[in-house]
Design goal:
elongated; mainly beta; STM4215-like; 3 helices; six-stranded mixed beta sheet; 39% strand
Length: 225
């Protein structure tokens, strides 16, 4: 069974899909009169939270240093866990038909294995209003679930799959410590669950059954009872 090469890029596509949801958020700065002074797009990167915080603490005057590319507000996300989802498991020996490469044939694959990917989205800001602007641009779309349609197989553009993404929790923290001149970082952490399925190799060249021959007869008993 093992040894047949296949790679459907499900985890890689899931990371790209999740990041695409949050790569177009903005923070507005307004004057006391309500006029918009500046509009800043919030950068997004795949990065572990602890590594990101360590970098912020190493350079306390980061927001004032023009030679440093990183600025606040900013967002990062990462996969924190991956678990089997027994509630969505269908019979494993079932086969799903796919379009074949030649006339009269079809390709097929066995029932996919359901898994849950848990993502953590971290929002970093130096003031509360910036962080709240970002949070409020995200939460209304999840009630608490948001579903996307994806194409799981590159060679089968007509095959689509619904991917539910559920907002599980929202947590807030303020790691401000030390003297007054040290840098303050406000962080919101949003945890999401994405339901995906892993498929095995796709078999090809199976012949399609186009007709069936059935013989039947009626057994008539003419004897009197």
């Amino acid at each position: 069974m093992f040894g047949t090469y296949f790679y459907h890029k499900r985890i890689r596509k899931s990371v790209s899909l999740f990041g695409t949801l949050f790569n177009n958020l903005y923070v507005l700065r307004k004057s006391s009169a309500g006029e918009t002074l500046s509009t800043q797009k919030v950068p997004l990167a795949y990065s572990p939270k602890q590594k990101f915080l360590a970098r912020l603490r190493d350079v306390p005057s980061l927001e004032n240093d023009q030679t440093i590319a990183i600025k606040l507000p900013r967002m990062s996300f990462e996969i924190v866990s991956m678990a089997y989802d027994s509630t969505r498991q269908l019979p494993k020996v079932n086969k799903i038909g796919l379009p074949g490469s030649a006339s009269g044939t079809r390709n097929s694959k066995y029932t996919p294995i359901p898994y849950i990917l848990t993502f953590s989205l971290n929002i970093y800001a130096k003031n509360q209003d910036d962080a709240l602007q970002i949070v409020e641009q995200i939460i209304p779309y999840f009630s608490p679930q948001y579903t996307l349609s994806v194409k799981p197989f590159a060679d089968y553009a007509d095959v689509t799959e619904d991917v539910p993404i559920t907002l599980q929790s929202v947590a807030w923290s303020d790691d401000y410590e030390g003297p007054q001149e040290s840098r303050r970082t406000i962080m919101y952490t949003l945890d999401f669950e994405m339901k995906i399925s892993f498929s095995g190799p796709i078999s090809d060249g199976e012949k399609v059954i186009t007709s069936a021959i059935t013989e039947f007869y009626l057994d008539q008993d003419d004897s009197d009872e």
